[in-house]
Specification:
The protein has about 800 residues and is an alpha+beta fold. The chain is built from 26 helices and 34 strands. The longest helix is centred in the C-terminal third of the chain and has 26 residues. The radius of gyration is 34 Å and the shape is globular. It binds one RNA strand of 85 nucleotides through helix 7, strand 11, strand 15, helix 11 and strand 30.
RNA sequence: GCGGAUGUGGCGGAAUUGGCAGACGCACCAGACUUAGGAUCUGGCGCCGCGAGGUGUGGAGGUUCGAGUCCUCUCAUCCGCACCA
């Protein structure tokens, strides 16, 4: 008897079943190929949004599909639980961040469970738990031991009104997010990780990642920003110091007409001392100091600078050139000083024209002028060196090498490489993060917390000042401690770590989440890592993915794991849009996953979101599209439920060779669908077309069930295949119908079907006949007809005869099993 | 400015190797069932045209027997980076 598709009861039932049977729990199994499927873990904001649903639905298709194909699949989930929103909530609602966070986790875990994702919940972790951050701190200590964690002064964003440091994300158009005051820069002691030591490897090893989107690799390459050039020193007139510059254009060194120091450069005060310009220089430096990064480096800011009164000596030709300071030279790239070649660098050109500094052409391109007065802009193209003494007539490329060689021989400078990548500033003057395991002792200086004393526990019962300043500065029981070396009174570091540190190794932790003495066990991590498929938003293309790669390489180097790269394949999913815009509270276009699941069920939500667009592309939310997905599941329900009892009795034969025409058609469709769905999931990640193929199969079954001689074996085979293939997308309904068809085991543990090549053999096929490239007729022909036969058949077709009558046939192109094109005029 | 992506019916999208453009779904139209339909089923559905037919993948050229797909130029939208010497 027909029953109603009661998704609420069904979804609850099967979620309970999976949990009780613990069917997604995995352990290492050397006898089976492993597959590690991972979605970027969420920040526990308290509510699941559609972006999450999309992310996890995609991951679940991959995980379930791989499991059904015989892989031992690790598919874990956890919480990126430290971070700013918890502190803001604490200030606003007077709830301690720990409590706010854990209740959010409870809430989101419940929501996640209603989606029915195949997670091994036994491995759940939270980065804010002492069991986890103990090892985040351990990571810090290891980096410190290997001289990859260090402290130095750095300029940070400072809100003078709130009296606190701000993260870059909290600075909105140069102002404080909270109070709107103008943010300025302040020099503070900060902790850094020396990721720059890994710059070359992070760049080179992108080659090891063919499974990453080019877009992401290009972004990382640009971010690392390797540039090859040379570094050399210039003497200063009447001064013992030398100025070192980096350039990528040593071939233009004879065109240097001035040089520039960054305003923060330590030699600025030295070279300008006692000069008439000293006062002006100091004023300029001061002005630059107070400008935010934004005001200083935005592209529309005009170049400006002042002459220091000092001169440097070009070591190549002995010329004395003026030393300037200017806003467009940055202290933290290269050496903080440049040689300026206005003829061949656009920035220098603009600056020189503004301040009437001479311009000298030293590269002559085919079209470019020799006379500097004729330059409308800098010439950065190819050419040969001119006005360059013995180097004249060298090409740009050869000239670079020749000049570097000369500099090396004469101890002027040397060839070198510079990276744009900066060291990673990891300290945050905030409360809700992993405390940096460092102690300051008046006698012993900076002392790392001994490993055996980890974790440095973050006190949870704290009070927040309305200013937003970290409460750790006021918790005496936290910061007052003894020096581990001398035993004397000492003070703990009250800064905590950037949350990106926590997320740089969580995928390793998932391999052995209960381990207590090490962050992970070697056997487990080497069995599971690297992650085979990582899925998340493209917004993490640079930071998270770069940091995770850095950590993996470091852990590899200290012999903690085998992998050199954490993520073999990366899928960057598109955003979920509504009315063409990203869903957001301020736009009021948010669709709540909870509402959708309540109204239509998780299976419908998942199916729609996977069907509406391929995963990498943005997805336009459509309430009517959801209805469509829901209707489709209802159609499957009615179809299978009606015939469930009937097909229970049927056993599938080995041999399907004696079939009538309709049965053969049906079976062809079943196996063509198996082939297509398998390929679409496995090779292309095109879930939308996989689902459309399943819909076509369903449509065909609805036709076949009403034919006169229904072959129940063929019918049953199709239904079975349909349910198994539906499972990765909409697992609850698949389980329920599978059971109603009399199967005892979960559909999840079925083997993915293999298509039968016999079923795909056709004896007739439709080909197209074109006349001069336009389709004029379709003809059924025996499959694999030869070119000769096809030519014959096409030309004998009455309609084609008629249309070519009186025309001259120039040429006939035959593509077997596809088409015949008769070129006639 | 540099780098990347995208552009196909009323809408989301399909066309995987240069070979039937518009699969599948939504919306819409007509019909069936029905007390009723915002349920279900059947059929139709790019545009122009009564029709034969013509035409059509942002635009303009090109290569080819044949182009959504390849090449050149161009426009639009989105994303990333943005004085990196």
């Amino acid at each position: 008897m027909n029953s109603k598709y009661d998704f609420q009861a069904i979804e609850k039932k099967w979620q309970k079943y999976w949990e009780e049977q613990n069917i997604f729990h995995v352990t290492e199994d050397p006898n089976r190929p492993k597959y590690y499927a991972l979605e970027m873990f969420p920040y526990p904001s308290g509510n699941l949004h559609m972006g999450h649903v999309r992310n996890y639905a995609i991951g679940d298709v991959v995980a379930r599909f791989k499991a059904m194909n015989g892989f031992n699949v690790l598919h874990p989930m956890g919480w990126d639980a430290f971070g700013l929103p918890a502190e803001n909530a604490a200030i606003k609602n007077a709830i301690p961040p720990a409590r706010w966070t854990s209740s959010n986790i409870v809430n989101m875990r419940e929501q996640l469970k209603t989606l029915g994702i195949s997670y091994d919940w036994d491995r759940e972790l939270s980065t804010a738990s002492p069991e986890y951050y103990k090892f985040t701190q351990w990571m810090f200590l290891k980096l410190y031991q290997h001289n990859l964690a260090y402290k130095k002064k750095a300029a940070v964003n400072w809100c003078p009104s709130c009296q606190t440091v701000l993260a870059n994300e909290q600075v909105v158009e140069g102002s404080c997010e909270r109070c709107d005051a103008a943010v300025d820069k302040k020099q503070l002691e900060q902790w850094f990780f020396k990721i720059t030591d890994y710059a070359q490897r992070l760049l080179d090893d992108l080659e090891m990642l063919p499974g990453w989107p080019d877009k992401v690799k290009i972004m990382q390459r640009n971010w690392i920003g390797r540039s090859q050039g040379c570094q050399f020193s210039m003497d200063i007139e009447g001064c013992d110091e030398k100025i070192t510059v980096f350039t990528t254009r040593p071939d233009t060194v004879f065109g240097v007409t001035y040089m520039v120091l960054a305003p923060e450069h330590p030699l600025v005060s030295v070279v300008s001392a006692g000069k008439p310009q000293e006062q002006q220089v100091q004023e300029f430096v001061k002005r630059m100091q107070y400008l935010s990064d934004m005001a200083r480096t935005a592209s529309d800011v005009e170049k400006e600078g002042v002459f220091t009164g000092a001169y440097a000596i070009n070591p190549m030709n002995g010329e004395h050139i003026p030393i300037w300071i200017a806003n467009y030279v940055l202290m933290d790239y290269g050496t903080g000083a440049i040689m300026a070649v206005p003829a061949h660098d656009q920035r220098d050109f603009e600056f020189a024209r503004k301040y009437d500094i001479p311009v000298r052409v030293v590269i002559k391109g085919e079209e470019s002028p020799l006379n500097a007065d004729e330059l409308a802009e800098a010439y950065a193209g190819d050419g040969v060196m001119v006005n360059s003494g013995t180097f004249d007539n060298y090409s740009v490329e050869d000239g670079k090498n020749a000049v570097i060689e000369y500099m090396q021989e004469n101890n002027i400078g040397f060839g070198t490489v510079n990276f744009r990548l900066r060291d990673w500033l990891i300290s945050r003057q905030r409360y809700w993060g992993a405390p940096i395991p460092i102690i300051y002792c008046d006698k012993c200086g900076i002392v790392p917390v001994p490993e055996s004393d980890l974790p440095v526990i973050l006190p949870e019962d704290v009070e927040f000042k309305p200013s937003g300043e970290s409460p750790l500065n006021y918790v005496e029981s936290f910061y007052k401690t003894d020096c581990p070396v001398c035993g004397g009174a000492a003070k703990r570091e009250t800064d905590t770590m950037d949350t990106f540190v926590c997320s740089s190794w969580y995928f390793d932790r998932f391999c052995s989440p209960q381990e207590t003495s090490l962050p992970f066990t070697r056997g487990a991590v080497d069995y599971w890592m690297p992650v085979d498929q990582y899925i998340g938003g493209v917004e993490h293309a640079i930071l998270h993915l770069m940091y995770a790669r850095f950590f993996t390489k470091f852990l590899h180097d200290i012999n903690m794991l085998e992998a050199q790269e954490p993520f073999t394949n990366l899928l960057t999913q598109g955003m979920v849009l509504k009315d063409g815009a990203k869903m957001s509270k301020s736009k009021g276009n948010v669709v709540s996953p909870e509402d959708i699941i309540r109204t239509y069920g998780a299976d419908t939500a998942r199916l729609f979101i996977l069907f509406a667009s391929p995963p990498e592309r943005d997805l336009e939310w459509s309430d009517q599209g959801v209805e469509g997905a829901y209707r489709f599941l209802n159609r499957i329900w009615r179809l299978v439920d009606e015939y469930a009892d009937l097909i229970q009795e049927v056993s599938l034969p080995e041999d399907f060779s004696q079939l009538d025409e309709n049965a053969r058609k049906m079976r062809f469709k079943t196996h063509a669908t198996i082939k297509k769905v398998s390929e679409d999931i496995n090779a292309r990640f095109n879930f939308n077309t996989a689902i459309s193929a399943i819909m076509e199969l369903t449509n065909m079954l609805n036709w076949y069930k009403d034919v006169e001689e229904l072959d129940l074996a063929v019918f049953k085979e199709a239904i079975n295949s349909l349910l198994i293939m539906l499972n990765p997308f909409s697992p609850h309904i698949a389980e329920e119908l599978w059971q109603r068809c009399g199967n005892e085991n979960s559909v999840q543990i079925q083997n993915w079907p293999k298509y039968d090549p016999q079923a795909l053999i056709q004896d007739e096929i439709e080909i197209v006949v074109q006349i001069s490239g336009k389709v004029k007729e379709r003809i059924m022909v025996p499959v694999d007809s030869t070119e000769e036969e096809l030519r014959e058949i096409a030309q004998n077709n009455s309609r084609i005869k008629e249309l070519t009558n009186g025309k001259k046939i120039v040429k006939i192109i035959v593509v077997p099993n596809k088409l015949v094109n008769i070129v006639a005029n």
